[in-house]
């Protein structure tokens, strides 16, 4: 870092003379010479015009590139022109003032070819480096960074002298370093430039690779070291990005599984309709958004916040009905529960399909859920970030309810020893129903979040049910922490397998690994041990 | 020894069921082939094809009954064994197409030519020979069941855990078979079959024979299943279902018992799949879908698990219902199926045959109790509740 | 050292310094126990003393963390699983009567019979006259000949206990572990069970875990009292029940 600042200052000092030389020349005669120039000569002229550093020539150069530059046959004065009825309006290339209208026959177009256009673009890149507009300067520097050339070097250096904005200056330093490599400057300067580029990360790698064949042999070790350091850094960022993707997938798994951790993990109910609870949550979000779109479009950014309690109540109520209507007759018969709840899931799916149709429903992202921001070498999308935050929030809220509230205590008492709890005055059927409703409601909340990243269709739940069970079983039944660790580790494992074997095979491998894992530890990562459990 | 084993199988109900199946195997194809289309007795080909499909499903349900009804292993992955048997048959049928495919390649099936494959993958070798293909119909599902069961039963994964991992197994296979580079035709599966053993698959006579084979194989498997369940081994099996640790402490190797049954059952399922494919003309990865396997469970439950006959009846009834509903009110089928799952578990846990059998046994028990009371003081005549507890 | 090897040469079952813990809770804490051939031994102890866990260890259901479990002087039971151990000749009756409820009394005994237990052996098994005689003999012993065709589910609780003992006899074990055989029995049934167990013990070793002090007194044998996973006292019932530690821990004041 110190070195970069130092080298920047050094370069600025060194090039001060050049910049002074370029400044102050009047571009007007240069333009006029274009009238007689062939393509080669024109290219040189363009470079000279640009070298004047006068930002006012930018529109005329643009016009040249568009083929809108003409010279007057009478005096060979060069103008930019634009159509004005059947005539052409002439514009002074330097001042930008109108020079009156002439007939088309009075002027001749100055020809332009692709080579010339490229030269003009490069020249413009240099010129906009001096633009008073900060954004324009920044993008000009970026343009050079992307397509460096020795020609741009002096322009950048000239611009650097004047630049005061820290960020723009830094960018220009980088642009300068990149351009310097293909120029004929001294080895020491190039070495400094390589150092600067090494700090650029992925974008610097291309530049370094492109010059690696032609560079001075004395610089080769520096170059290779710089390339290696960039590659190392890139690998680290790739790792971080993979972990992030994995956490993102893990949080989705956690969301889908967390309700199941209650109904299956704590209560021991195999609820195959769990996925449909998630699906109902997603449809609740859709309904809420419909109502908002029609009645209060201004509230759209709040739609998810409104959908959360709605989804919780809707799916919680459905869960309550399922528990009272079906499951309570099947306690102690897990396989039958599995079948009956599968039936429930078919009915719920078909009901939604009948009401809303089989196609995907459009659920919008509020503004704060869309877009992304860069973090070092990786990109973080807002929706993934919020979902991670959200799933962890739900997890800890649930943990709190289970461990710290009277209701949680009752619930654990009932699941551990139903008869004892009942004789202590706990109304066990009530606790059962509420617990199941809670698990279902949480699945509904998960549906709100998943509606943001998945297709909202009647089949939404089906795609999560097997994964959710895998997470709970892998993590260890009856252990909320196990569910958290299980979800995150499965998510990350999946994302690390994906690049080498592909998404589908990765998923298959994860399934196979879990199946093998269950053989080794039939009760999951965090299993309770003891006589009662093993019986 | 073997004859004793088989003879034991031929108990009253089984004999009747086998008789009916053999009669069906003869009469239905005969009515299809020998009567004129306008005759009142004529069975149209599409009806026969439908019935053939039901018989394959019935065999699949029978396979599930062997593990679930008798051994207490609720497999949610039996569709995988069915599909694997189907794929083995499908691969044979693909090889029979020869150079008549769209691309006219004598060795490679069309989809491989399409994917630019140059030669046949090793796992397709030999499947152009019928006996080898038929062996694969048994070996591939059996081997998968063996490997899976070897791990699962040894580490004593049971109950719902086992159900969930069997479901994961079929799900993983589905994902795998959807991949084009697996070499099984990917998404589209295997289809456009031309002939089997030199006979046209679509020809009326071939269809009739396939139907008869389905009924015959079902009868055969029913006899084998009955022989197994009525042997001492079958009694151990029920013991494993009801009191696994007692069986273990009596010195039996529960994992071997389960493994044997699971493998036999998977082979039954494979046979069902192999008969299914030429009759419907296609096999694709959709057959691995977890939902399919669960549907098999409901057929078995409706008919009555642990009865052998029940699952056959259940599979035929439910699928006939499905054909009717999907024709008449397509959107109601899933409601009906879902309702069936709930209703059977809540109100008919023994299934149709189980309930009838139970009523019959209870009547016999009551009569026996009355007789006993006449004779001497029988303190513990079985009550209906007690008989219920027995099952 | 000498004394230990002496005890070992004539022991049927030999436990030395056995410990096992579940999640930090020590269920069995350096327990040592010797059962001689032909011995009838009663084990008492409060709830959680480790009685059932001890049986779990002997029958291979639970692996001990440390310690030796030796059968017939040479066989290390910690290396074997339940089926192996059962085939070696150790039978076990559970606390809750565990019989095959959907089988008849006869079938229950037939399954328990000490015959080859392989998959194919059982598939092709046919009942021989010898086996039939053996089953009938056991039916007489457990006094259930008249109920042989009844489903086990229809038996009373006490009868199920007896059927289970009958099944263990059919297994022809050298050592019989019996967990609370008289729980839930009437007094008459309890007395009869004591007679039955004494009869059985004539031909093999039996270890009985029981809470019922009257029943233990009926048996009139050597008693071991367990508490918190180790042996508290051992000796005749009168000796043990007068031990102050036993009184404090178990019998109560």
Describe the structure.
The complex is a heterotrimer of chains A (535), B (391) and C (253). The longest helix of chain A is centred in the middle third of the chain and has 47 residues. With 535 residues, chain A is mainly alpha-helical. Chain A starts with a helix and ends with a helix. Chain A has two domains: 171 residues, no CATH class; 297 residues, ABC transporter involved in vitamin B12 uptake, BtuC, CATH 1.10.3470. In chain A, β2 and β3 form a beta hairpin. In chain A, the strands form two sheets. Chain A has a five-stranded antiparallel β-sheet with strand order 4-3-2-1-5. In chain A, strands 6-7 form a two-stranded antiparallel sheet. In chain A, α17 crosses α19. By secondary structure, chain B is an all-alpha fold. Chain B has two domains: 292 residues; 42 residues. Chain B has 16 helices and four strands. Chain B has a two-stranded antiparallel ribbon with strand order 1-4. A two-stranded antiparallel sheet of chain B has the order 2-3. In chain B, β2 and β3 form a beta hairpin. In chain B, α3 packs parallel to α8, α3 packs across α12 and α12 packs parallel to α15. The two termini of chain B are 30 Å apart. The C terminus of chain B is likely disordered. Chain C has 253 residues and is of the alpha/beta class. Chain C has one domain: 3-Layer(aba) Sandwich (Rossmann fold), CATH 3.40.50.300. In chain C, the strands form two sheets. In chain C, strands 6-7-8-3-9-10 form a six-stranded mixed β-sheet, sandwiched between helices. Chain C has a four-stranded antiparallel β-sheet with strand order 2-1-4-5, covered by helices on one side. In chain C, α4 runs parallel beside α7 and α8 packs parallel to α9. The termini of chain C are far apart. Chains in contact: A-B, A-C, B-C. Chains A and C meet through loops of A and α2 of C.
Keywords:
heterotrimer; A: 535 residues; mainly alpha; ABC transporter involved in vitamin B12 uptake, BtuC; five-stranded antiparallel β-sheet; two-stranded antiparallel sheet; 68% helix; C: 253 residues; alpha/beta; Rossmann fold; 10 strands
Task: Describe, in short, the structure shown.
The complex is a heterotrimer of chains A (535), B (391) and C (253). Chain B has 391 residues and is mainly α.
